[in-house]
Design goal:
196 residues; SRF-like
């Protein structure tokens, strides 16, 4: 008596599902191996579990060669456009890198020249240009320094003015307080009949 048909649907119990997966996976791998041995067939089998774990079987020495053979049979000549695009991007990136490298080297050379280093290879015209550039930089530095000193001077003058104003205010209060104190002493002396 044979088994009845089992309805195919997702197994809800997680443990039962994992056990069934392991049993059926092993059975499938065994069948693939048997097919390759009995029929001298080139067989490739790829299985991913629901957790993303890879299980594979390949009857030939290389899964990659079998997949390339499959791709040629199924899709004709392999699509090289992706490789061409990648090669073009690589070439473009390399050109950009070479441009940036040349620019960095030029900037480093210029920096060394500005520091007075590696001046030997420069022509007379380049030396004159460097001298003009240094003069211009010195003028800018002097101008910036002068402006900084003027700003400091203005700030000090503002502080001096504020201190003078505070000093005047305090002196005035002191005079008023002193006058009031003298007035109170005078009144107290008059009240007690003490005359200076």
């Amino acid at each position: 008596m044979g088994r009845g048909r089992v309805e195919l649907k997702r197994i809800e119990n997680k443990i039962n599902r994992q056990v069934t997966f392991a049993k059926r996976r092993n059975g499938l791998l065994k069948k693939a191996y048997e097919l390759s041995v009995l029929c001298d067939a080139e067989v490739a089998l790829v299985i991913f579990s629901n957790r993303g774990k890879l299980y594979e079987f390949c009857s030939s020495s290389s899964m990659l060669k079998t997949l390339e053979r499959y791709q040629k049979c199924s899709y004709g000549v392999p699509d090289n456009s992706a490789q061409i695009r990648e090669s073009q991007m690589l070439q473009s990136s390399h050109q950009e890198y070479m441009k940036l490298k040349a620019r960095v080297e030029a900037l480093q050379r210029s920096q060394r020249n500005l520091l007075g280093e590696d001046l030997g290879p420069l022509s007379s015209k380049e030396l004159e240009q460097l001298e003009r550039q240094l003069d211009s930089s010195l003028k800018l530095i002097r101008s910036t320094r002068t402006q900084y000193m003027l700003d400091q001077l203005a700030d000090l003058q503002r502080r001096e003015q504020m201190l003078c104003e505070t000093n005047r205010t305090l002196r005035k209060r002191l005079e008023e307080t002193s006058h009031q104190t003298n007035q109170q002493v005078w009144e107290a002396m008059q009240m007690h009949g003490i005359w200076p």
